[in-house]
Design brief:
The chain is mainly α and 315 residues long. Helices cover 76% and strands 0% of the residues. It has a domain of 170 residues: ABC transporter involved in vitamin B12 uptake, BtuC (Orthogonal Bundle), CATH 1.10.3470. It has 13 helices and no strands.
Length: 315
């Protein structure tokens, strides 16, 4: 994570070279280089770290709660719900970072709750295929509604379209300050639910026997995921597949223990987002690819690998 963070500060699509950026980090450099590193790349890097942390943890929590390795905020309507809510807020003139963050969290909570409720009506919440199908249906519906909003106001449409591509470029640190309280609360909830989630991995009867309340745990996880995904969406727009790739890598090292997986998601989430962001700057320089495109290119093969595996990965 340290090396990728340094790379995020050194490399970019602009005219400032890695050598010039390194001189800034060492206390020198030209005025232009200092501006690019401290005013553009540093806030971008910090926001990327927080976004990756939030999405990685959210994906691991969703997969543990549903006991489904395909559960991911971008696939289960969570990111789409958050994105629709923010698009609605932009259409009606939301101008403060705090309001945008709050609206994104409410939208994420609504999208997550509707998908999980839809699959549990028939007792099918643990069926990977049905869960993903329900999430894809909800995502498609919310994206269609978002497109309808874009037709209503051309000025808002341009802003929504740029925001929906997913990017951490040019985002002010004021936006991060507005989301930090929600992320802090979410991290506290992660610590609280980690042990009950590990117990639920043994089965709900075993969890009840150990003194836990599965319904209460699921509610806390849903709220935690909404806070994390809503904050990440407010910061960077909808970034799909990050919440799938990060827990997938973490479980390869940690095994089925959700507590170890969550700990590994803390550095892995920022690594995946920042690495994708650095690639987005360099692959089409001097232009930049949207970060959401790069995360999709990384995540789609992982999703196909999971689906085509002989059996689902153990959770």
């Amino acid at each position: 994570m340290f090396l990728i963070t340094i790379a995020s500060l050194l490399y970019g699509a602009g005219p400032v070279s890695p050598d010039e950026a390194l001189a800034v980090l060492l206390g020198g450099g030209s005025e232009e280089a200092r501006f690019v590193v401290t005013e553009l790349r540093l806030p971008r890097t910090i926001i990327g770290l927080i976004t990756g942390l939030a999405l990685g943890l959210a994906g691991a929590l969703l997969q543990a709660m549903t006991r489904n390795p395909l559960a991911e905020p971008g696939l289960l309507g969570v990111s789409a719900g958050s994105g629709f809510a923010v698009a609605l807020a932009i259409l009606f003139g939301a101008s403060t970072a705090t309001l945008t963050s709050l609206v994104a969290q409410v939208g994420a909570l609504g999208g997550c709750a509707m998908v999980i409720a839809a699959t549990r009506v028939q007792g099918l919440g643990n069926d990977p295929v049905r869960l993903v199908l329900a999430g894809a249906t909800m995502t498609g519906l919310l994206l269609a509604l978002t497109s309808m909003l874009m037709l209503m106001d051309q000025r808002a449409a341009d802003e929504i379209r740029f925001w929906l591509t997913g990017s951490i470029a040019g985002k002010p640190l004021a936006l991060l300050q507005a989301t930090l309280p929600s992320i802090a609360v979410a991290l506290l909830l992660v610590v609280i639910v980690a042990r009950p989630l590990a117990a639920m991995g043994l089965g709900e009867k075993a969890a009840v026997g150990l003194g836990h309340h599965p319904g209460r745990v699921r509610l806390m996880v849903t709220v935690t995921v909404a806070l994390l995904v809503g904050s990440a969406t407010a910061l960077a727009g909808p970034l799909i597949f990050v919440g799938l790739v990060v827990p997938f890598i973490a479980r390869a090292f940690a095994g089925p223990d959700i507590r170890r997986t969550l700990w590994l998601c803390v550095p892995l989430g920022p690594c995946v987002v920042l690495a994708a962001d650095v690639v987005s700057r360099l692959i089409a320089a001097p232009a930049e690819l949207p970060l959401g495109v790069v995360t999709a290119l990384i995540g789609a093969p992982v999703l196909l690998a999971i689906v085509r595996a002989g059996r689902m990965p153990s959770l």
